[in-house]
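Hi everyone, sorry if this is the wrong subforum. Our group has a chain we'd like a structural model of before ordering constructs, and none of us has done structure prediction before. Sequence below.
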Amino acid sequence: MCNAYEQHVKWVEYCRMMQALELGIPASQSERDLPEHDDIRINQMGPVMRATANDREVELEPMNFGLPSNRPKGGPVFNFRSEGRNFSNTQRCLVPASAFFEFTGTKYPKTKHRFTLNGAPFMAIAGIWREPQGNHPASFAMLTTEPGPDVKPIHNRQIVVLRPEDWAAWLWLTKSEAELLRPLEQGSLSVETVRKGVD
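Answer:
Right subforum, don't worry. Here is the predicted structure as tokens:
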């Protein structure tokens, strides 16, 4: 599943999108809160969008990609199955991304495929987050669903990419999970192969 994504969202694009969606940005935040990275992987930090206590404001917060496991020797939970779940009592977030990656093949290096959202300057991936635990910082996981037609040729699952008009609905859960946490229709995502694998 998706264990890496790209964060090249420009601060000016972010502000423009938030203004269009009538979502406030805390006055204290700036481009420093949206650092760019070619490849954010499991157990690396990335900026996450979450609702503030103030109505209709969204803040960026650095978080670790991967929730700590409840099992003593378990690995981090970076993808979380969404089907049939109720998230009303869960801390919800959005992961801003310019692209996400999927991999095919059985040998390293695997073939790397880059997905982008058509018709928008960047995408937001539905996620859940947790407060810091001990030495572990605040962390997040991306929600997954069945693959849409753009992803199915590459992978049998996909992360939930939300259209901008559904960002607030996920943060404040003003629509049902069934309405929000589903794959996009065909042609919503573009894919390019950015690295050929050995198998």
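For your construct planning: The helical segments are 11-20, 167-172, 177-180. The longest strand covers residues 58-65.
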